[in-house]
Specification:
The chain is mainly beta. It is built from 4 helices and 17 strands. The chain has a single domain, classed as Mitochondrial biogenesis AIM24 (Double-stranded beta-helix), CATH 3.60.160.
Length: about 230
């Protein structure tokens, strides 16, 4: 599989070329265009993170109930994928460590990558983000999308990231959600600022996005006329 990222960083799309018999799994509704002979199907995907239960878990986590599967019968099959938000795409090669991904940032992966739903506990709930995150394991390539630009932060010890800017992080890192200031009430009520932060510890990588989808949604929503 060959991946070429085009129009980075503000309007990135992924151009993927498959070899004969190779399979690509993607979030439903992300295909822009593809070669006419590629076999495309919609599935709940069997195996870890698959089936009816896996599909329902992804739905709770903010993902589509279904996944799209693309298989090329011959070498050279092309697929163009586009994320939900305008922004960048990250190509990440899985390692034995594993990866935790914000649910809405998953775009696509090779078929050997296992996708499951991980419960990050009430610390995720109080952060204002999704309680559920995607737990990625196995081997192969993963494509992640971001709202705005995406960049890597290498952590060796301790690092602080605003909760709304996290795309993914390696499972070698532990984390706790805490307030940026001295008041919990001020942190929870702080709209558009650094109210709650994620304190990572250990050694690994955190991938961040330049824009906060929640903050953007609040800003745009406040300008819309009431129904």
């Amino acid at each position: 599989m060959k991946v070429k990222l085009l129009h980075q960083p503000d309007s990135a799309i992924a151009h993927i070329t498959l070899t004969a018999g190779e399979e690509l799994v993607a979030e439903a509704g992300t295909m822009i265009a593809m070669s006419g002979y590629i076999n495309a199907s919609t599935t709940l995907r069997q195996g870890k993170g698959g089936g009816i239960l896996g599909g329902l878990k992804r739905l709770v986590g903010g993902e589509s109930l279904f996944l799209s599967v693309f298989r090329s019968p011959t070498s050279g099959g092309e697929i163009f994928l586009g994320p939900k938000f305008m922004g960048d795409i990250l190509s990440y090669q899985m390692t034995p460590t594993g990866l935790v991904v914000q649910a809405t940032s998953y775009l696509a992966s090779e078929s050997n990558v296992d996708i499951d739903l991980g419960f990050q506990g009430f610390k995720s709930f109080f952060s204002g983000e999704s309680i559920f995150w995607l737990d990625m394991s196995g081997s192969g390539l993963v494509l992640l999308s971001a709202f705005g630009g995406i960049y890597e932060v290498p952590v060796n010890g301790e690092y602080i990231v605003d909760t709304g800017h996290i795309v993914a992080f390696e499972k070698s890192l532990s984390f706790d959600v805490t307030k940026a200031g001295t008041s919990w009430l001020g942190a929870i009520l702080n709209i558009g600022g650094e109210g709650l932060i994620c304190r990572f510890k250990g050694r690994g990588k955190v991938f961040c996005q330049t824009h906060n989808p929640g903050g953007f949604g609040s800003l745009v929503g406040s300008q819309l006329p009431p129904r």
